[in-house]
């Protein structure tokens, strides 16, 4: 099986490409803006016909799109998260209409959740900001494409290699700087929001299952940890894993998104039924691996994607 992974230099993409390479008989090629990509392409600006030519030459059996933007202004987010998937779908329809497309969406597409009610794929989508709105536009482009495609709506990824652009990686970097000084004070914003954390290695397993599953798949599947975890608990566990002896102080209001989306949890029943997938790593496992990897703050490639 020949598999093309777009955005393989990012946090999720790197783990996903590694997991796919371990599949028996798989040949994995990479695509993106990074030097050395097998298929040089920038989905934010590529023309469908040019990408179609590259896809026709490669003739992939499956394409996994991990490319996306988590930050930047609304124009940047729209170019990468909305236009990019639309261009990819147009190119696939022309050059490789039989290939399976696995596209990474985001739980942010759902918007604010109701405490105590995990969100199923059938729930209304009410994104609270440009990131979720542009990811939703990308999902619509994929699900309306007529291709053999599935969108995996990923929760908040955590685990080894987590970048400093996300909360787990940022907190790990702060803890590394604080050391084990009992007088150290870690000042963070409001940590009362609840998030659905999922290990990046479990996300990679879900993608492998989606690539190889027989027959057509549902248009959207939730991939998360299946529980709403207080962000405060994540910080507490990571501090314990790091051996931090100081104090954590919540000062300020935190991020705007935390204020807009105070509770988030995905119903992952369908992924279990369709893919036989369940998360295998606990939050403790994920944070222990993050700390052991020592990669908080390490620069990531230009294709980095995270579901936030």
UniProtKB/TrEMBL annotation:
Protein name per its UniProtKB record: Putative NDP-hexose 4-ketoreductase
Short name of one Pfam family: Epimerase
SUPFAM superfamilies in the cross-refs: NAD(P)-binding Rossmann-fold domains (SSF51735)
Residue ranges of domain NAD-dependent epimerase/dehydratase in the record: 3-224
Family, as annotated: Belongs to the NAD(P)-dependent epimerase/dehydratase family.
PANTHER family assigned: DTDP-D-GLUCOSE 4,6-DEHYDRATASE-RELATED
Superkingdom classification of source: Bacteria
């Amino acid at each position: 099986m020949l598999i093309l992974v777009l955005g393989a230099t990012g946090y999720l993409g790197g783990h996903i490409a590694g997991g796919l390479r371990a599949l028996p008989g798989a040949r994995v090629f990479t695509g993106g803006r990074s030097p050395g990509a097998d298929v040089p392409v920038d989905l934010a600006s590529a023309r469908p016909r040019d990408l179609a030519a590259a896809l026709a030459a490669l003739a992939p059996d499956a394409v996994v799109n991990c490319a996306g933007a988590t930050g930047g202004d609304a124009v940047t987010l729209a170019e990468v998260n909305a236009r990019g998937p639309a261009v990819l779908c147009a190119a696939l329809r022309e050059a490789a209409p039989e290939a399976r497309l696995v596209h990474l969406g985001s739980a942010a597409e759902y918007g604010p959740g109701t405490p105590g009610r995990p969100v199923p794929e059938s729930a209304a989508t009410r994104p609270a900001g440009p990131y979720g709105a542009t990811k939703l536009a990308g999902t619509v482009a994929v699900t309306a494409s007529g291709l053999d495609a599935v969108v995996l709506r990923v929760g908040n990824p955590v685990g080894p290699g987590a970048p400093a652009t996300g909360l787990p990686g940022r907190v790990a970097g702060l803890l590394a700087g604080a050391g084990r000084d009992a007088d150290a004070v870690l000042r963070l914003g409001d940590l009362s929001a609840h998030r659905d954390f999922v290990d990046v290695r479990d996300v990679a397993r879900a993608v492998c299952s989606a690539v190889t599953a027989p027959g057509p798949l549902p248009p959207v599947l939730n991939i998360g940890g299946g529980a709403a975890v207080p962000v405060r608990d994540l910080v507490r566990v990571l501090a314990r894993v790091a051996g931090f002896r100081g104090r954590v102080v919540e000062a300020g209001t935190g991020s705007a998104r935390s204020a807009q989306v105070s509770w988030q949890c995905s119903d992952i029943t369908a992924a279990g039924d369709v893919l036989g997938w369940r998360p295998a790593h606990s939050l403790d496992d994920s944070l222990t691996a993050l700390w052991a990897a020592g990669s908080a703050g390490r620069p990531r490639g230009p294709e980095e994607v995270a579901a936030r």
